[in-house]
Amino acid sequence: MLLRRLCCSLSSTPRSFFVAPSNLARRHNSFATMATAMPSANGHASPPPSLGDVRGNMKLLQSFALPYAPDMKVQKWKSTRTGLTLVWADFPSPLLNAYMTVPTEIFTDSGVPHTLEHLIFLGSHDYPYKGILDSLANRSFASGTNAWTANDHTAYTITTASSDGFLRMLPVYADHLFRPTITDAGFTTEVYHVDGKGHDAGVVFSEMQGRENTSGDLMELRMQRSLYPEGNAYRSETGGLMDKLRVLTAQEIRDYHAKYYAPHNTALVVTGPLPLAQLIDTVNSIDDGLIAAGKAPGPSGPPGWLRPFLETPSATPPIIDGSLRGDLPSLTPIDADVASSRDPLRRQTTVEFPEEDESMGEVYISWVGPKLGSWIEEEAISVLSTYLTDSAVSPVQRAFVERDDPLCTDVYLSQESKAGSGIISALFTSVPTAKLAQLDGELLALLKKIAKEGIDMQRMQLCIRRDRVKLMNHLETKTSESFADVLIQDHLYGDAGGKDLFTCMDDVARYEVLAGWTSAQWAQLIDRWLVCNARMVVLGKPSKTLQKSLRKDTKALEKKRKAALGEEGLKELTEKLDKARAENDRPIPDEILSGFRIPSEESIQWIQSGRRLIGKAPVSDGVVEGQVSKIADDGQTTPLDKVLDDHLAPELDGPQLPFPIHFTQVPSAFLTVSLVFPTTHLAPHLRPLLQLYLSTLFSLPLQKLDGSAATLSYEDVVRGLDDDTVEYDAGLGVGGGFAENVCIEVKVERNRYAEAVGWLRDLLWGSQFSVDRLRVSVAKTTQSLPELKRDGRGISWSLLRSLTHDEGKSSNVSTSILRMLEFMPALSERLGSKPEEVVGELEEVRRSVFRLDNMVAAVGGDVVGSGGKNALQPWRQLAESVAAKQQANNSASSASPVHLPWSRSVLTPLGRQPSKTGLLASLPTVESSYAVFTSRGPNSYAHPDHPALVVTVAMLNALESVLWRHVRGAGLAYGASLRIDVEAGQLHFSLYRAPDSARAFQEAKRVVQAVAGVREWAGSKGKDGKPSGLPAPSFTQTDLDSAKSLLHYNVAEGVSTVSLCAGEVFSDELLRCAPAGRGRGRALLSKVASVTLEDVQRVLREWVCPVFEAQTSIAAIVGSEARMGEIEKCLREQEGYEVRRKTLPIVKGAKDAKGEESSGDESMSGSESGSESESGSESESEESEVDGKKGKL
Question: Listed GO molecular functions (predicted)?
C-alpha cells in the first residue's frame, strides 16, 4: 500500500570505515569488473520483456504499470542461479535510488543487525579501505551512501543524479554488502571499546547510549516485551542494548552475516529511469560474482533454510489478554495498581524515562491487527485513521486536542505489517502525567460512541477521496520513497514469486470498494479492531529520580572499571585503540579514486519549467548594485515559457493587479498557490503574536468575501479545506529560508485553482478571531513547551539567533522557542483576563502584514491545464473584494514594489560583525552538547567567492572528509559541518552530539588551519585526549573533483520533483535574486567547474578560518550541566571568548503529577499544516539537517 509507510524502530548511522589487507587484483567475474566500465547498451532498442523471459541469470516474474499512473511501471526479476531478487520501479525522475534490502531476524538484544550495518561500510573484499564506498559515491553524482536498521530488515541505500554513476556504483556496493571485511579492528572502533580513561566508547555504543533511555525507545521496547514472548524476533532490540553491546564479539557478527546476507535472502530495489538492458547486465555481473566467490548456496538457500519471520516462530501473532491467562513468564508484568481489577481486553504497564520536568508523559496503545494479505481491511483501517485523527474536526482530535485543557497535544494512529498479524498503534504525546492512566479509557468510550451513533458518511467519503488524492500527490513528491516502502514490504512478507505485488499496490481499486461501504460496516470495523479487540497500554512517565540514578550508575561502573584495570590496564586499552585506528585509517590509494570516472552533467534528466511574472517585480535584499533582474527574457527560454505566455496572453489587457504574481509551469496534476508577506512593518510588541496568528489560521470561523457574506464555523472551514485541498501550510520562511517573510500555501488539484485563491482570500481577510479557538491554540502550544525545550540542537540555534538578530525587527527570533517559553504562558493569562485586547492586537497584525500592497503571489504546477483561460481572473476578484473590505486604495499605480527582506536586514551589530561573544545554556535532559560558531560570510549569490566557498564547504562536509575523520572519526562529535548562510552574510560551524563541544571545536580548528596552511600540523587527538595517529590533513585534486561531483547531486536533488522545481524557480528569481535567475543551480555548477585548489586555499584562509577564531566569531552552546563548566573554561581561557550563561525560563502553566507547576526549529513560527508537507529544496535552514549535511541517518 503506497500510502502506508513502513515503521522503522531504529534509524542508524554507519559512519566510521576501516581498512583490511586484501588482494586488489581484478579477477574474472569479480564485483570490481563493473566499477570501471558501465555496460554498453545495445545498438538498438531491446523489445519489452514478457513474463518468464530470462536474460542471463535473471528471470522476469512480474511486470505491470500502475493502473492509475500508467507512466509508472514495476518489474520483478529473480536469479535462477542464486535467488537474488531485483525489483525495479521505472518512472521519470532526475534521481535514481537503490535500496539493498536484507530481512534481518534476531532473537536477542545483542544488536547484531545494527552493528553489522555499521561494519558493512568499513571496507570489502575488492575495496578494503575505510571510506572508499562514500568516496566513490561522491564521484558518481551522489552524496555518500546511507542505511537503516528496522525491527525486521536492514536496507542500504544510495541516490545518484546519473544513471552512469548509479550503475557503476551498484557492484561496488554489492561487494560491501556480501563480502565485507568485518575485522577486529573495525569492531573495536565502530562497535565498542573502553578508552584510555575507562569510558565506554564506540560509534554504535555511543549511538545507543544516546537513545536507550529516551522516552520513545523505552516505550517501544516495553511494548515489544509486552506483546511478544521469548523466541519471537519482534521482541528484540535490534539496535542493541548497552549491556549486550559490551559483551558482543566480532565473530558473532561474522556468523550472522554468513547466514542472512546471502543472495537468496536479498532484494535489490531500484527506483528511477534506467536502460533495462544495462540494469540487467549490471545485476547479472553481480550475480556471477557471487557464484564465483562461493556466496550462492542456490536460489532457495541452503538445506534447512527458513524464510525469516514467515517460516520461524516469529510468525506466531501476539495475544493480548489482561486476565491471569495472559501473564506469560516472558511478557512484561502488568502494573500492580491494575492487577486486582483484571480486564481481559486491557493490559497496562508503565515505563519511566529520565526527565527533570515531570509534568508531561506519553501513552502508547497497540492492538493486534489484520493478518497479512487482508488488503481491504488494512486499507479500511488506514482510511479510518484519517477519519479519526487527521484534522481539527476529526473525532479524536476534537475530543483530546482541540480544547482549552488538552489531554494531549497530538495523536497518531497507524498500522505496521508483521508476519502472522499486523499491529495497530496509537501514540498520544504531551499527556499530563496525572491523566496518563485514564487516557485509553476515554479513547475507548469515544470509539464506542462513534460506533453506536454511526459514521458521518459524508466526511468518510471525503476521507476516502482525500486519501486517494494524497496518494497521487505522494507519487509526485515522494515517488521513490512511496515505491520503496511497498517493494521492501513485499520482499519481507509477500509471495516470493511476486503474485501479491500488483494487488498490494492497487490502492485505488480498494478505495473504490470502500466508497461503497455503509455506516454499519465502518462501525463494525471500529468494534472489531479497536473496541472489542484487546489492547496493550504502555504509559511513559517522566522521572527525576531515574535521571539521577542513571548518571550515578554510569559513574559507579566507570569507577569500578578503572580500579580493576589500573594504570597499566588503561594504557593497554589505549594502545589497542591506537593500533585499531592505525589499521583502519590507511589512506585510499589516489589512483583508485581518480580512476573512477565522474559522470557527465548531460546524464542528469532535469525537469523543464516555464515561468512568467505579472506585475511589478518585488525588490529583494538579494539584489546587488549593478545586477540586472533575470525575471525577464534572459536567453534561457524554454518551450514551456511560450506555452505559459500563450495561456496568459488573453488576460493581460485586463485591469492591473496591486500585487505581482509569479507563475511557474511544470508537468503536474496539482497546483500550489502561495502568498508571501514581508513582516518588515510589524511593530515589535506584535511580532510574537505571529505564532498564534499562523497556528490558528486554518481553524478559525470566517465570513466569505465572495459576495455572499456567508459565515462558516471553524468546523466548516476545516471540512471545506479538507474537501478542496491536498495540503495547506502557514509559517515563517520560504523554501527553507527567508524567515522574515510569512508564507501561506494551499495545494490543490489543478482543476480547483479558483477554489485555492478563494480560500486564501477568505482565510486571510475574512477570518474571525474567536477567543475560544485562540485559547485552544495557546493551551496546545504551552503544553508542548516542555517537550520542545528538550531539543538541544534547536535551543543552540535559538541561542545563536538571540545574539545575531534584533528581536525588535526579527519575526524569526520573536517567535523562537526561547521567546515562547515566556510569551505563551503570559498570553494565556491575557486571554483569560483581557481577551478583547489580544483580539485587537491580532487585528493590528492583520492590518500591518496582510495587505495587498505588501504581498507577492506565486502559482506553481500545471497552470495551463488548470482549466479555462482564467489564470488572472480569480486574483482580480480577490483584489476587488479585499479592497472593498479594507476600504483602501489598492490600485496598481499607487503601489510601490514589495520589499522582500533577507535576514541580514534584521541583524544586530554583533550579527553583522561577530566577535568574541559566547552564550551557553545547560539542559538537564541532554547528555551531549550542541554548538554553533558563526563568522561573516558572503552576502550575495553574485559574490565572486561564492562558487569557491561552496566547493570548499562541500570538501569539508563530505563523508570521510578531513573534518569527518578528525572530529567524527575520533569520537569528538556525532556530526560536524559548515553551512553558508548567504541570506545573513554568515558562515556557521555546527557540532551535533559532542561529548565536549570545546574540544571538538579545537580539533576542527587545528584541522582547518592545517589544511589552509596557516598552522603547522602537530598531530590529532581523540576523545580521550591521546594522539589519534591520523596523518596531516590536506586537500588533493581528487578531493576537489569529488566535491564538484557531489555538488551535481545536491543541485539535482533540490529540483528532483515538480513541486521542488517550481519552488526553486520562484525563490531563485524573486527571493535569492541569483544572477542566473531560473537555473541558479546549473549556473553555479558551471562556475564551480573552474574552481582550483588555489581558490580553495584562498577561501579557507579568508572565509573559513575566521569562524575558528574568537576575534572574528561568536558561539552558542547547549549541553549538560555536568560538562558546561569545562566547556566554558576552555572557551574563555584557551580560546578567548567572553562567555556568559543563560538560564532558560520556567514554563509556567505546565502541571506535574501533583498539579504543581514545573519547569520545563529554532523558531516556533506558528506553522500549521493540513497534511504532510514537502520539505524545501536546497534548504537554507539549519533545522532541515541533522548534522549539517547529508549522512547516514
Answer: metal ion binding
Integer Cα distance of 815 and 821 in angstroms: 10
Residue 12 pLDDT class (50, 70, 90 cuts): very low
Q: Which residues contact 25 (CB under 8 A, 6 or more apart)?
A: none
More confident residue, 347 or 927: 347
Residue 23's pLDDT is what?
30
Q: Give all domains of the chain, ordered by start, each with its CATH number.
A: 50-312+564-595 (3.30.830.10), 317-543 (3.30.830.10), 667-790+821-857+877-886+896-906 (3.30.830.10), 913-1021+1030-1141 (3.30.830.10)
- β-pair partners for 465: none
Amino acid sitting at position 1044:
K
Going by C-alpha positions, the residue among 355, 472, 377 that lies closest to residue 424 is 377
Q: What is the dihedral of CA 565, 566, 567, 570, to 10 degrees?
A: 10
Q: What is the pLDDT of residues 1034-1046, one digit of tens each?
A: 899 999 999 999 9
d(CA 1011, CA 1035): 7
Average pLDDT of the chain?
87
Supply the Cα-derived Rg of the chain in whole angstroms: 29
Long-range contact set of residues 400-403: C-beta below 8 Å, sequence gap at least 24: 400/428, 400/439, 400/442, 400/443, 401/780, 402/699, 402/776, 403/776, 403/779
Burial class (CB in 10 A: 0-12, 13-18, 19+), 382: buried
DSSP conformational letter for 153: E
What is the pTM assigned to this prediction?
Answer: 0.89
Q: How far is CA 718 from the centre of its chain?
A: 27
Band the pLDDT of 1153: cuts 50, 70, 90: very low
Q: What confidence tens digit (pLDDT) does each residue in 687-715 have?
A: 999 999 999 999 999 999 998 889 999 99
Query: What nine digits make up the cell of 341?
Result: 481489577
Place of cell 553524482: 141
Q: Which residues of 78-107 are buried (b: 16+ CB within 10 A; e: fewer)?
A: bbebbbbbbbbbbbebbbbbbbbbbbbbbe
| pLDDT at residue number 2 | 59
DSSP for 200-265 reads: EE-HHHHHHHHHTTSHHHHHHHHHHHHH--TT-GGGS-TT--HHHHTT--HHHHHHHHHHHSSGGG
Helix or strand (DSSP H, E) at 1015 = none
**Measured in whole angstroms, how far is the alpha carbon of residue 255 from the centre of its chain?**
33
Q: 741-763: per-residue pLDDT in tens?
A: 999 999 999 999 999 999 999 99
| pLDDT > 70 in the chain, percent | 88
Q: What value, to the nearest 5°, has the Cα angle with vertex 367 and ends 362 and 373?
A: 130
Strand order in the sheet with 535-543: 346-354, 535-543, 360-371, 421-432, 410-416
Cα separation, 590 vs 20, whole angstroms: 17
Q: What are phi and psi of 664, to 5 degrees?
A: -125, 125
Do residues 404 and 775 lie in contact, with contact meaning Cβ atoms separated by under 8 Å? yes
Question: How many Cα atoms within 13 Å fall on the side-chain side of residue 972?
Answer: 29
Mean pLDDT for the stretch of residues 799-821: 94
pLDDT of residue 650: 87
Hey, what's the cell of 178? 556480501
pLDDT of 90 strictly over 50: yes
Q: Locate cell 560474482: which residue? A: 289
Distance of CA 764 to the CA centre of its chain: 30
Strand partners, 1116: 919, 932
Amino acid at 41: A
**Which residue matches cell numbers 514478457?**
50
Q: How confident is the model at residue 865 (pLDDT cuts 50, 70, 90)?
A: confident
In angstroms, how far apart are the furthest CA atoms of the chain? 88
What does DSSP say about strands 661-665 and 610-614: parallel, antiparallel, or unpaired? antiparallel
Q: How far apart are CA 853 and CA 855, in angstroms?
A: 6
Residue 1170, pLDDT > 90, answer: no
